[in-house]
Design brief:
Oligomer: heterodimer
Mean pLDDT of chain B: 77
Distance between the termini of chain A: 39 Å
Strand order of the largest sheet of chain A: 1-3-2
Radius of gyration of chain B: 33 Å
Number of helices of chain A: 4
Shape of chain B: elongated
Number of strands of chain B: 15
Number of helices of chain B: 9
Structural class of chain A: alpha+beta
Largest interface: A-B, 20 and 21 residues
Order of helices and strands of chain A: HEHHEEH
Helix content of chain A: 40-55%
Helix content of chain B: 40-55%
Number of strands of chain A: 3
Low-confidence stretches of chain A: none
Radius of gyration of chain A: 15 Å
Distance between the termini of chain B: 70 Å
Strand content of chain A: 5-15%
Order of helices and strands of chain B: EHEEEHEEHHHHHEEEHEEEEEEH
Shape of chain A: globular
Mean pLDDT of chain A: 88
Structural class of chain B: alpha+beta
Chain lengths: 107, 451
Amino acid sequence: MARKKFETLTEQMFYILLSLEEEYCGIDIMDKIQNMTEGRISVGSGTLYTILGEFEKNSLIRETAVEGRKRSYIITQEGQRILSNEISRLTQQLEDYKKFGRENSIE
Amino acid sequence: MRNDNILKKQVRIMPDNLEATKKELEDLAARGWMLDGKEGNKFVFRKIEGKTLNFAVEIFDKASDYDTFPNEHNMEYIEFCEKAGWNFIFAAGKIQIFYSEDLNLTPIETDDNMKFDVICKMKMSRTTLLTTSVLLPIIGFLNLVMSITINRNSVELSFMAFSTVVIWLLCILVAMTRTIRWILWKNRCKKSVELGAGIIPRKYLTKKAGYFMIGAIFGIWSVGGLVAWIMLGQIEAAGIGFLCLVVLAMFPLSNGISKIAQKKKLKSSDNAIAQFVIPFVFLLFFIVIWSVFIISGMNRNANNENEIPLTLSTIGIETNIEASGNENNTDHNNDGKFLMSLDYYSESSMTGATDDREIKYYIYRTDFPIIYNRLMKDAKTGVFRTFGMMYDFDLATSVEGLKADKAWYYEKDGFHYLFEYEGMIIKLDSNFAFDKEQLTTADTIFASLVK
């Protein structure tokens, strides 16, 4: 079971987890996220390294291949659950904003 | 041989203000000194053409503080950073240093929450390790040793014991202040990180302020020693406090000479002479003054019989004028007592003769019950010494019918008396037994000394 701290994901955690929907080399995730978000989100190399370690430790991702020092990962069921929860949470927030936010602020 | 292309410099690394280190490295690079590695506690810089570089000083949690080269995790981390465009320079324990020519490169750490957690972990371990496991026990041990060794000389050297207690308390105070400041910073920083405002760099004392504080503490201690020893009548010991002050003064003096030499653009030979000669003359001058302290302490003798309270002649013993001397008599600060005064007198009737009669006595005066009780406690527990001679209270029997509040006497390798008056304790040793009349005379004289 993932720790409580992953019940709410930071933007960087969210995109790291999302980018591992398919098997991917850890070190290349920085570029992938840049492309996915068109440069809006940048994950620092140190932050990425630490988050990957934490995710693996809490079984949100698992290692699939090791080539020298390059490791590839893929999301696990637990990771999928956390990601889905996050998406539900964000969707709910958006719904709430639509309901209670200022008129015409979102079309 | 000196290499002008290499600069070795101590760079302060504070986990909670890595920005300051980063800025220092960037400033040095702009001035033409590029960080190259580390030797001992010093960073090594090599000469380059000054340029604007982007440095990253990071904490890598999976390394140990004691790692001397990057471990396997470290290598992986370095590879991640190099892939992102950062060039690795070196790792010193948990601290990792990178640089890049790209000033807009994504920072290595982009999650302030995680960065904050790592700082907290590292900072707490360092602080607690340093203060609780190294510094305080060492000072505590010193204090213990000094208390035991100093005890034998009673109150006279209590300033030393008192000093170590004060220094110990100061260390605890500093550690506590650091911890409180750390907790305050942590709470403030946590809020800032939660609000997305990032990590607040922690402010530290500058090196200059640190040196000033240390100088001030030892300066106060030296002045305290000087005053306490003078007040206790230990003039020669007061010189130690004085010498400490002089040694402390050498640092700003030497610094001042360098500054003047640079300003006046002195030739290196002249500068070298100034650096040695001025402090030497300065030190010599104060050593002369210290000698005066010692001489004044040693030679303040009671030089005529009117100054000596109890003499052999007052108790009816004929003395050979030439042989009886006052040369051993030292009059320490008799009237000007502050905490305590100690006067020592001795007299010999005919030195070398078989019927030589000798008396030695020590007069302790104090207005402070704590010191008085301590002296009496020392006397009764056998640690009360005067010039190496201990009063063995276990052998003593009480002497009644005197003006003294209490008096004791015993015989062993001579004759030993102890008199207790209000604010005054007298230890008298002689090589003959006082008869009743002599004892009454001595007691009357001693009682008249009570102020």
